[in-house]
Amino acid sequence: MKTFVGIDLGSTTTKAVLLDESREVIGRGITNSRSNYGTAARVASEEARVDGRFTLFRRALSAGGGKSEELDEFLAALERAFRLEQFLEQLGDLEETCRSQVKGERFAKVESGVKDAIGEVLNRLREEAPALYAPGAKRKSDFFRDIAGSRYHAHAEEVARVAGLPYELLLNVYDKSIIDVENRPPSGGLSDKFRRALARVLAVDAAVKTGATDVPQTIEDTLAIELEETYLVGTGYGRVTLPFSKEHIRSEILCHGLGAHMMYPNTRTVLDIGGQDTKGIQVDATGIVENFQMNDRCAAGCGRYLGYIADEMNIGLHELGPMAMKSDRPARINSTCTVFAGAELRDRLSLGEKREDILAGLHRAIILRAISIISRSGGVTDEFTFTGGVAKNEAAVRELKKLIKENYGDVKININPESIYTGALGAAEFARRAYLGQTDGREA
Amino acid sequence: MTTTIVTPKAAPAKEVEKDASMVKQKEMMAAHYDRLTSAPQTGEKVVSTFVPGNLNELTMCFGLLNNLPEVNAIQNGLRRTSGAFVLEAEKIGHSEDVCTYVKSDIGMMAKGNIAPNGKRFPDPDVLLLSYTGCFTFMKWFELLREQYKCETIMLHTPYMGDGKITPNMIEYMVKQLKDEVIPTLERISGVKFDIDRLREYLKKSATAEDDLVHVLQSAKRKPSPIDAYFGGIYYIGPIFGAFRGTDDAIDYYRFLREEVEARLAAGKGPVTPDGDMGKEKYRLVVEGPPNYTNFRQFWKMFYDEGAVVVASSYTKVGGVYDFGFRHDPEKPLETLAEYCLGVYTNRSLPMRIDMLTNYVNDYDADGLLINSIKSCNSFSAGQLLIMREVEKRTGKPAAFVESDLVDPRYFSAANIKNRLESYFQMIEQKRAATRAAA
């Protein structure tokens, strides 16, 4: 089948969306951008294709009489099993790569010991892997580096101690290997992984309940459908560094405008707060950008600012919003300078201000800056759509709603749970239109 | 599976291409710098003055050589030496927000005051401030007066707040010329003022101005044979600088006009540093000065996308000639007053809006682009309002980028390119929408 791929190469994450010919989203994929946009684009689109397979499974199984709730359960189990397969495959790669690093003078006397230790660490990782992907298990991140990294460190410390080896040696081998592993596409074929995943699910419950007839055959038939990459459009900060030809690149401002329009056709104003830029975009009734403003070279008040604050406070990015929500007396903070964020925070803490009040103030400061950018782009016209990573932060959303109400009255505010994919969605639609011969990217 | 990834071939480094007129222009500028730096030997006296409202015909009557500090800052920007000068000025105590022309100049003085030809600039004998709307110019000369301990003359040009020139305004300025400016210049130079000599220079100015206007208006044609912003900056050099009123300027503008005529006849677009521009895809009107530290990189972002600037306000800061004004030898002092009143920096916001709207319509442009200068409060204030209003009146999309004159720290290539590309793609979409509606 024909698919249209949109890739949004952001400064923090790279997103991919797969559309089919009838403009339905069939898959979404996300990965960290690393410092390698080429790999990030490949991994994100691969992830979107994996996600696309699940959409196709669902379609096929529903057509075969599958019931929605049972299908949800089955597909969730299949996905967990698939992720586990993928994780195990990457662990295998990690082990091999780590072993290959054990050479040279440093390891002269301990070569076999280190190799054994690596084997032991990886075995432990493999042992606990199924629990990571058990129903209801919570993972801090879905990126291999994040999951494998913290567990490797924990196990390596103990294994090294028991074996009487320097811990640093094991860490050093890992550090040298992880980038390669992360940047290498999993070697095994996707279809085989799906088959192994299905076998895992069936092993637990051979008579899997989906309501559909002949699940294994349906899965097999669906895997036989080729996902043809019919046209690809790249957008986002990294687009220029990729070897895409010009007709495969669109500005992220146009992509965000179009993506927001696709999610909410009545959208007239879009705010996107991403990792290093904030954009205010005005679109017309067909999703064409009428006007835009964005921050200049300074990324004050963008997503990265929150990232620094989280690092400074030694908490997760996703914990910032909930903590700020506890405040009823937000601190008054004027500067959204990312560089001074840490100093500002420490300063206020030392003055005895509460963490939640400071955080609430920081969130307000970010949104104040965003409001200024929106007003420069032409203000807010009903409906208003908020996109980008920061749209997931409830404290930012609370402040935004308050300020929009104060400045522009009653406006419908849309925030899509998949808002992080807005740019990639617009790009995918531009790809679909380009394929249909609308080279200017306008809908026919 | 279709593969959409192509690897662009790295192009070999090429020589920068220049029009014959650009080469000639550079020679003229170089000759002027040589003349300036030899002043201590030749005994010629030097007047420092600014581009907007410069009274070159008048100062030539006293044998004074003009030195234009903002042109020096531009030269340092283009030669990539301004960054260090700006830092030097900040070290002396000037804030990060101060006009970077000023800081480049102050920094250059602190580092030996070396001209582009590698020789030392002479100290000025007089500072002539023809005040035409930029308050910073006044402060700048205050600093220079402190430095050089030389005489200062100020000619005050009333601001065109109501959008028109009244007889009172002319009278007020002529009086200053007669009572202050001319007597002081006589005293400093030791040369007696000769109004017929002034008339002669003014006549020459008008001849060159005719040809300049002809060149600038050639951009109404499609494709435009010139880029009226990036190329335009070369074209205005002589007439905004030391050459207005000279035979050299007459020769240059005649030569330039012929060159442009030839391009028109051949149906050619502008010459860019990478050679002839490809197909003209977008026609833009630009408001605001360019960035000089990354001038070629900035220009490339336009011509790579097929964007040509057909009219710009910046090429009017040293004189607005395309609405009919010419220096008039019949009314020598009045015409100098009228010239100063009309320069772009002295025009009110509504006048600027009218002018830009007129450009978008007359040059059949796709829209207005504003390059807003971070360190220029006087020019940047109100630009978003200008943009909205021009958008409303023309129905054409506008866009806004931000950079600086000569401070390299304020040029973010990725950010500007992103905005420009978005703007070009936006124009493309708008056109398609208009076609569909037709």
Quick summary:
The complex is a heterodimer of chains A (444) and B (438). Chain A has 444 residues and is an alpha/beta fold.
| Gyration radius of chain B, rounded | 22 Å
Count of individual beta strands of chain B: 10
Largest interface: A-B, 36 and 36 residues
- Terminal-residue CA separation of chain B: 38 Å
The CATH superfamily of the domain at 265-415 in chain A is identified as ATPase, nucleotide binding domain
Strand order of the largest sheet of chain A: 7-6-5-8-9
Name the shape of chain B in a single word: globular
Q: How many DSSP E strands of chain A?
A: 9
Main features:
heterodimer; A: 444 residues; alpha/beta; Nucleotidyltransferase, domain 5; five-stranded mixed sheet; four-stranded mixed sheet; 12% strand; globular; B: 438 residues; four-stranded parallel sheet; 17 helices; 10 strands; 51% helix
Structural features, described:
The complex is a heterodimer of chains A (444) and B (438). Chain A is of the alpha/beta class. Among the domains of chain A are: 82-183, no CATH class; 265-415, Nucleotidyltransferase, domain 5 (2-Layer Sandwich). Chain A has helices at 37-63, 68-101, 111-132, 144-163, 167-183, 190-204, 215-223, 252-263, 303-313, 317-325, 341-350, 355-377, 394-408, 422-435, and strands spanning 2-9, 13-19, 25-32, 228-235, 269-273, 278-283, 289-294, 384-387, 413-414. Chain B has one domain. In chain B, strand 3 (126-131), helix 7 and strand 4 (151-156) form a beta-alpha-beta unit. In chain B, helix 1 (20-37) runs antiparallel to helix 11 (247-265). Chain B is globular. The model of chain B is unreliable at 1-10 (pLDDT under 50).
